[in-house]
Design a protein that fits this description.
Elements: H1 2-29, H2 31-41, H3 47-54, H4 56-69, H5 71-78, H6 90-99, H7 112-134, H8 142-164, H9 169-182, H10 186-191, H11 201-213, H12 225-228, H13 237-245, H14 250-260, H15 263-269, H16 280-288, H17 292-297, H18 299-318, H19 324-335, H20 339-345
Length: 347
């Protein structure tokens, strides 16, 4: 009777542990990816797509239930018990990894290497567990060994799920930003990933497009990019510049000039009379160009940005004998969100 009770306890522990992992994996860590897969599988007008988007909790619970049900054929086929019972969730863990392998283009983006390594891992784990199961074991400290064995196997299965699934942080961030962009929630998009240290060209361009589309009053359309662009980490300024130049838009061209450090083209292309107040980074570029017309038209703003530029130059002067990377690091905290810093240390 005690042995049966122990076996039942093991099954419950494994089931609850895997269910908790599966739900957290789907609901918290793969939310944006599941939404993106939903957009690929169903058209915009499809009722199921809309329902699934609005009921992510239920979708996560349903997929968790499917993963748990896959443990039943695992139990029938693999037939592991007690300390090795967790190995019956081998198919369930693989299922979770497979359905979260979307890379932005393909639903199942896993490479041949990933499939081969995963297949080899599953076979090796199965064989090792079978060998261990065939070895006679004493009853000494049985419960502790049973719990430890199942926890070890569960940990390995969770790692396999992470290896099969897509855990690219930038991809998840970009997918979320695409969703916000499609909904016109530009301010939420700007806040999302605001202080992240990493980015990629897709994120950079998406954020720039949102700035160009952001509605403004009494200003040229799209000039919000001149106030926000350099507040964010830009992974590849040259790539972003090329992308912006392909957009038939004045503000996109002006921003591309700033990214390239082409102050002459920027100054020749901007029309000062269009702006009741100059966007921050446009003004900083004009300060760098020492444009007298701008100083005359916007004296107060020009003076303020000139004072910031002088402070930046003063900081640089104190470390002028140091390597460029040291100069960039020492001025980063105070000035990295200014165009002065970007222009000086641009890639």
């Amino acid at each position: 009777m005690e042995k049966k009770s122990c076996d039942k306890c093991v099954r419950w522990i494994c089931g609850l542990l895997f269910a908790a992992f599966a739900f957290c994996w789907l609901y918290f860590f793969q939310r944006e990816l599941l939404w993106a897969e939903n957009r690929v599988l169903f058209s915009a007008e499809n009722g199921l797509r809309i329902w699934m988007y609005n009921h992510h909790l239920l979708v996560s619970l349903a997929l968790t239930a499917i993963a748990l049900l896959l443990a039943l054929p695992g139990k029938i086929v693999l037939r592991f018990k007690k300390g090795l019972y967790a190995c019956n969730y081998l198919f369930s863990a693989a299922f979770l990894g497979v359905i979260t392998g979307y890379d932005g283009d393909s639903l199942f983006c896993q490479s041949y290497t990933v499939w081969i390594v995963t297949g080899a891992f599953m076979v090796v784990l199965f064989l090792i567990c079978k060998i261990v199961a065939s070895v006679p074991k004493s009853e000494y400290n049985d419960r502790t060994r049973t719990l430890a064995g199942n926890l070890l196997i569960m940990s390995l299965l969770f790692c396999m799920t992470g290896y099969l699934g897509n855990t690219d942080e930038n991809l998840h961030r970009r997918l979320r930003m695409e969703q916000l962009y499609s909904e016109g929630r530009y301010e939420d998009l700007f806040d999302y990933g605001r202080y992240e240290e990493e980015s990629d060209p897709g994120i950079d361009l998406l954020r720039a497009k949102a700035m160009l589309d952001y509605p403004v009053k009494d200003f040229p359309k799209g000039c919000e990019i001149g106030a926000l662009l350099f507040r964010y980490r830009i992974s590849d300024p040259k790539s972003l510049s090329r992308s912006l130049r392909r957009i038939n838009d004045t503000q996109a061209y002006l921003s591309a000039c700033l990214l390239d450090g082409d102050l002459d083209s920027f100054r020749d292309s901007i029309h000062l009379e269009d702006y009741p107040y100059m966007p921050t980074y446009y003004m900083q570029a004009l300060v760098l160009a020492d444009d007298s017309l701008t100083a005359a038209k916007f004296p107060k703003q020009f003076k303020e940005e000139k004072e910031l530029y002088d402070a930046f130059k003063s900081e640089l002067e104190s470390v002028k004998s140091e390597p460029t990377q040291f100069q960039a690091n020492s001025t980063f905290i105070k000035f990295h969100e200014s165009y002065f810093w970007f222009y000086t240390f641009r890639k």
